[in-house]
Amino acid sequence: MTNLEVRPVPEQCDLVPSLGPVVELHEARDVPLGGVRAMRVRRTLPQRALPMVGAWCFLDEFGPQHVDMRVLPHPHTGLQTVTWPVAGEILHRDSVGSEAVVRPGQLNLMTAGHGVSHSEFSLGTQPLLHAVQLWVALPDGVAEGSAGFEQVSDLPVWEAPRARATVFVGDLDGTWSRAHVHTPLLGAEVVLDAHADIEIPLVRGFEHAVLLLGGTAEVAGTPHTTSGLLYLGDGRDHVRVRSLDGARLLLLGGAPFAHDLVMWWNFVGRTHTDIAQARAAWESDARADRFGVVAGHDGARIPAPDLPNIRLQPRRRTPKEPT
């Protein structure tokens, strides 16, 4: 997935000291992507008060809506893209030669490394789509490495009374996904039946957050009925989750990320220079040298927006005021 904003905001995300257990609701930002896709997404990462959760550095949710999604080839650096559909089917093509349809219950994981390009198209005419698109920041030693792609279909399920969680990334209480990531992470879709009341085991050293994908729930004693991201901080061994009528949740976690990041458009780097060089490469006639070619599009692509007329500066996490 691409960030199609015409004037993307530069972001630098930093390792954050331990906050201990907190409960903070970070409202989603409604982003109209229009034109290419005529879609709107709800973006909860990054934002000023919460740039990252572990290595998770970008989170968009779109749908459920009937829409023809057509995202032409575009580039990425320094990250992994995670595509997790709740409803609908998406065709992925990339410059390492992959072509795969991802369906609910399946994971598409693309590693950008030094550079990759890809496209994403919905299948059918005005299909019902509901999905989350996430980015995982890559650590030193991998961020400038080779590009790659994997689709994982046989994902494990952690079970509790009236609840189950499909683990698509990392480990939940010994239930491991075989998806290949490069920092300690957790990504799981949790489905609660009516009258579910469970405790989900967590890793104390991780920070965690929960996005509501459907229904209503109470998380850590707090009603969660919005499209915002409920940030739980770190230092928790478990979180209690309840639902009267049933709910679907996205549970994210990870060890605090150990590197500063600059994020702009579809690029993740360490410095302003990293971003400027990636943009220049994508806009050059030799773009294929770094980003390859996505087959089936006859050279069509999404051009990069202009860089802002400033040097990309750090963005620090801004603590929320007590409520």
From TrEMBL:
Signal peptide per UniProt: none
Region of interest called Disordered, as start-end residue ranges on this chain: 304-323
Sorted UniProt keywords: Iron, Metal-binding
Gene Ontology molecular functions: metal ion binding
Binding sites annotated in the UniProt record for Fe cation: H74, H76, H118, E120
Transmembrane segments: none
Record's cofactor remark: Binds 1 Fe cation per subunit.
Cofactor(s) demanded: Fe cation
Domain of life of the source: Bacteria
InterPro entries: Pirin, Pirin_C_dom, Pirin_N_dom, RmlC-like_jellyroll, RmlC_Cupin_sf
Classification via Gene3D superfamilies: Jelly Rolls
Pirin C-terminal domain mapped to chain residues: 189-284
Residue ranges occupied by any Pirin N-terminal domain in the UniProt entry: 39-136
Biased composition (Basic residues): 313-323
SUPFAM superfamilies (alphabetical): RmlC-like cupins (SSF51182)
Pfam families: Pirin, Pirin_C
UniProt similarity note: Belongs to the pirin family.
Descriptive protein name: Pirin
